[in-house]
C-alpha cells in the first residue's frame, strides 16, 4: 500500500485479472461507519509535547468482489477500501483476494493474493498464522489483510493436504485509536534482518461429525514486539522469527461441541506452547426471539511472558451468540484473566433490514485491567463503539 511494488501488484491483480476472462458474479458492499470513544486520550510525543486524539470519527467503506473463469481456471478478486475523517491510518485500501486456480483432477494450484483461516475457536485463534491482522478494521485482529502466496491443495475423500509458500511479509498497520495513545514508529526492525513471509503445510481430516488438522509454519511472526527506541522515544515494531507445530480439532454434536487449538514452537531460542480449549453448548430450552442460541466457554493459555502474541495468557472466555428473529444476530464475549483479574467485554450486533441494507455495531470495554497485564492495561481508556450502515448489491 505504501510500497511501490504493492501498488503495482494491486493494479495488476485488481484490474488485469477480471479482464482476462468473463465475470460470472459480482458483489458490492458500501457503508457509512463511525467510531465513538468513551474517553478523550492524549498521545505523548517524542519531543515531550502532547497530542489530543479524536473522540469521534466517521468514514466510508467499500468492498467489491468479482469471480469468474478464464481458460477453465477459476479466478477471484476482492478489493477493500476505507476512508476516515480523523484517522489518516484508516485511509487505505487493500487487496483481500486476487488469485487464479488451476484444477487437475484432485489437485488445485493457486497463485496470487488470498486469505487462509485456520482454527475452530470463537475468541482467539492461536493457530491462525497465515495472514496479517487488519487492526484498522478490527480491534480483535480477526479481520485479515490479503497475503501473496502460492498454494497447492490435494483433496481426497476424508483429508485435504495443503502446502503454502508466502514470498513476502506484510507489516502490521496501527490506527491512532484504539491504540492506547502509543507513539508507534513508522520504522521497523527484524530479527537477524529477516523479512520472510514463510511457508506452511496442513493436513485436515474429516470423520463423521469431527474435523481435525495438523500443520506447521515457519517464517516471520505476524505480531511484533514493541520495543522503545532510545533515540526517538517511539515504540519500534520488532518482528521475530517463529517455527510452529499446529493442531486444531472440533467435534460437532447436537448439543455439545468440544474444540481445541494448540500451537507449540520456538521463538528467540526458547520453546513455548499456546492453547485454546473450549466447548459450545446449544441448550434445548426456548427463549422468545432468540434462535439457535449457543453458549461458549473457552480457556486460553500461553507460556510466553513478555513476547505474547494475543490477549489471553491465562484467561477464561465466556460468551454467547444467537439469531434474533429471522434477520438479526447478536454475540457477546467476556474474558477474565486468572492471573491478573483483568476483565474485557465485547458485544456485537447486526440486523438485516431488507435484501440490500443491514445495520452493524460493535462495542468493546476494558472493565478492569491490572498494571501487570501487558495485553490489556495499555487499552484501559480505549472503550469504544463502532456502528455502520451497509448497502449491498
Question: What would your notes on this structure say?
Answer:
With 393 residues, this protein is mainly beta. The protein contains 1 helix and 23 strands. The protein has one helix spanning 4-19, and strands spanning 22-37, 41-44, 50-53, 56-70, 73-84, 92-104, 107-114, 147-155, 159-166, 189-190, 198-207, 210-220, 225-228, 235-239, 241-251, 256-267, 270-281, 290-302, 314-324, 328-337, 343-352, 357-368, 384-392. It has an 18-stranded antiparallel β-barrel. A hairpin with a 2-residue loop joins strand 11 and strand 12 (210-220). The longest helix has 16 residues, at 4-19. The radius of gyration is 21 Å and the shape is globular. Residues 1-12 and 14-18 have low confidence and may be disordered.
Major sheet, described briefly? 18 strands, antiparallel, barrel
Beta-sheet strand percentage?
over 45%
Gyration radius over CA: 21 Å
Pairing-aware structural class of the strands and helices? mainly beta
How do the SSEs run, as a string of H and E? HEEEEEEEEEEEEEEEEEEEEEEE
Overall mean confidence score, pLDDT: 90
Binned, the helix content reads under 10%
Low-confidence stretches: 1-12, 14-18
Number of helices: 1
- Anisotropy-based shape: globular
**Intertermini distance:** 27 Å
Total strands: 23
List keywords for this structure.
393 residues, three-stranded mixed sheet, disordered N terminus
Gist?
The protein has 393 residues and is mainly β. It has one helix at 4-19; strands at 22-37, 41-44, 50-53, 56-70, 73-84, 92-104, 107-114, 147-155, 159-166, 189-190, 198-207, 210-220, 225-228, 235-239, 241-251, 256-267, 270-281, 290-302, 314-324, 328-337, 343-352, 357-368, 384-392.
